[in-house]
Amino acid sequence: MPRKMLIDGEVKQASQVEEEANFDFDLFVIGAGSGGVRAARFSANYGAKVGICELPFDPISSEVNGGVGGTCVLRGCVPKKILVYGANFGGEIEDARNYGWEINEKVDFNWKKLLQKKTDEIVRLNAIYKRLLSNSGVKLYEGEGKVTGPNEVELTQLDGTKLKYSAKHILIATGSKAQYPDIPGKVSFQFFLIECLGIGSCWGILSPCQSNN
């Protein structure tokens, strides 16, 4: 008669338990944006063996670049707030003249310096997110991941080498990318995304860590 075991409140066959124990990971997450990172960290904190993959970081995203942190942190919300914050000073300086501040010298604006400030901040945040994963015991892989089977993930590394890992659970947290309608201003808008926000060729990539993203 097959042996049975009680695991996490569920009765399982001993052979099933042994098979599950052979997985490389309890959870493998494809995409290290805010959602993927949080899922990986919390699972690891509860004792799960967790792996996560993300494309390598670059200040400007593309089909081959991404970064731990995802769109909100690296491409959208945070960069936008920095640019808006920097832009507000222009009006405040002019208002100050009307409230007793004597600003005699011409005030110049250095656009490249503001962009560098934005880049410095997302570099800092990318490092913080990596450290959060490391401190939680999550194994981070840089490369492009895709699901190749019910419990199998294939990871293509930067040099083209392909690795395969098995996981009891797989979480796809890659987000998506927008489709641009063919309307006037499309090219100008894409140029703004690249030059101003550093978003690259697409908008809305949370964690471009899949082959078709």
Automatic annotation (TrEMBL):
Matching InterPro entries: FAD/NAD-bd_sf, FAD/NAD-binding_dom, GSHR/TRXR-like, Pyr_OxRdtase_I_AS
Record GO terms (molecular function): flavin adenine dinucleotide binding; glutathione-disulfide reductase (NADPH) activity
Residue ranges constituting the FAD/NAD(P)-binding domain according to the UniProt record: 25-193
UniProt key word Flavoprotein: yes
Any Pfam family the entry gives: Pyr_redox_2
Keyword entries, A-Z: Disulfide bond, FAD, Flavoprotein, Oxidoreductase, Redox-active center
GO BP: any one term: glutathione metabolic process
Cofactor: FAD
GO cellular component: cytosol; mitochondrion
Family of this protein: Belongs to the class-I pyridine nucleotide-disulfide oxidoreductase family.
Name of the protein this chain belongs to: THIOREDOXIN REDUCTASE 1-RELATED-RELATED
UniProt organism field: Salix koriyanagi
Origin organism lineage: Eukaryota, Viridiplantae, Streptophyta, Embryophyta, Tracheophyta
